[in-house]
Amino acid sequence: MKKVILFIFYFFSFLPLLAQKKELVIGFGSCLDQNLPTKFLDKLIAQKPDIFIFMGDNIYKDSLNPKDKIPEYEKFNKIPQVQWLKKNSKVLSTWDDHDYGVNDVGGEYEEKALSQKIFLEAFDEPKDSIRWKRKGVYDSYTTNFSNKVIQILILDTRYFRGPLKKEKFLFWEKGYIPNEDPIPVLGEEQWRWLELELDKPADLRILVSSIQFHNEKHRFEKWANFPKEKQRMLDLLKFKNIKGLIILSGDRHIGEFHLIKEKNLPPIYEITSSPLNREINFPIVEPFHPDRLGNFFQESNFGILRFTPKEKDLEISMELHFRTGLILKNVVSLSELQKILE
Fold first, then answer.
1. Are 76 and 122 contacting, i.e. CB atoms less than 8 angstroms apart?
2. Of the residues 2, 220, 261, 340, which has the fewest C-beta atoms closer than 10 A?
3. Is the pLDDT of residue 293 over 60?
4. Could you tell me what percent of the chain has a pLDDT over 70?
5. Among 276, 250, 271, which residue's Cα sits nearest to residue 317?
């Protein structure tokens, strides 16, 4: 009888360990055209992400009338892989220009409040969510895995953003260049929110930006077009003593990794995943960037962050899965992401 009681005791003692997930999978991607095939996304579903982040350009419908986006969101929500994600994963989202308004538009868009309402409805935002009560679609989400707190911070780089500055040569506009004036990307409301979020305890933070943060070499939209805002972000991370950060970005129709080495901060990886299916059918020429890890690729792709317990640490596999089967991968430990660079 005593042996039976001991067996029952040990069995129920080990149940929590048996139930504990062996890994946490966070998927992410951007640039999904609701009118193009999505068969490639079956490979994403096969990864069974616990969380999936739509990082912007979730539909393509450039229009100054947000109501024109409603039937396109209806197409989006009928995509089988989107339906699977909404049923089986925690779906998080932000927008970029083509689902917000029109190409490259920012805070000057007059119908942004209505566009926000339509966006939140399309992503089934609960009616008691604070996102209905504030300007912009920025958001945060926290999850726990293997005794580690992971905070996901989703930025809105559209609602408050100031005007872009174009380089001109005679009558030809060559692209966007840095605007040294104090032009906003996030806006003061969103900055205050971010500061408060960074005060919350977390072992790892994932910062989601619809546009690229680190890469300043190309002529398209990027944080480097607003150097004072970019520096403000780096200064804030230092001031808050943030240890453990990964940046996710989209928009570019390429997939690539960058490693940011900034004094008084730990190493920061930025993973750019774009497009989910809207490929550009001509060769993209990318300037060399010394912080790029390996090559960039412009075919359809999605990103995966795979967390696996390793003794008292976490192993983090940062992956880009491409249409042709190519997988780019960088594996680091959480402790490596928490070491301040001198």
1. yes
2. 2
3. yes
4. 92
5. 271
Mean pLDDT on 87-116: 98
SS3 assignment, position 117: helix
Q: How far, in Å, CA of 94 to CA of 210, rounded? A: 7
pLDDT tens digits for 57-69? Answer: 999 999 999 999 9
**pLDDT at position 11:** 41
CATH superfamily of the 21-337 domain: Alkaline phosphatase D (PhoD) (3.60.21.70)
The rounded distance, in Å, linking the Cα atoms of 10 and 13 is: 5
Tokens of 178: 């840095």
Quickly count: other Cβ atoms within 10 Å of residue 129's Cβ.
11
Q: What element of type H or E holds 13? A: helix 2-19
Render the burial of 183-192: b for 16+ CB within 10 Å, e for the rest.
Answer: bbbbbeebbe
Beta strands in the chain (DSSP E): 24-29, 51-54, 90-93, 139-145, 148-154, 165-169, 172-177, 204-209, 245-249, 256-260, 268-272, 301-310, 313-322, 327-333
Q: Is residue 42 classed exposed, middle or buried when 0-12, 13-18 and 19+ CB atoms within 10 A define those classes? A: exposed
The DSSP result for 223-290, as a single string, is GGGSHHHHHHHHHHHHHTT---EEEEE--SSSBEEEEE--TTS--EEEEE---SS---SSPPP----T
Q: What angle do CA 45, 50, 55 make, to 5 degrees?
A: 75
Domain residue spans of the chain:
21-337
Cβ pair 99, 57 in contact under 8 A: yes
Closest CA to 93 of 40, 139, 24, 160: 139
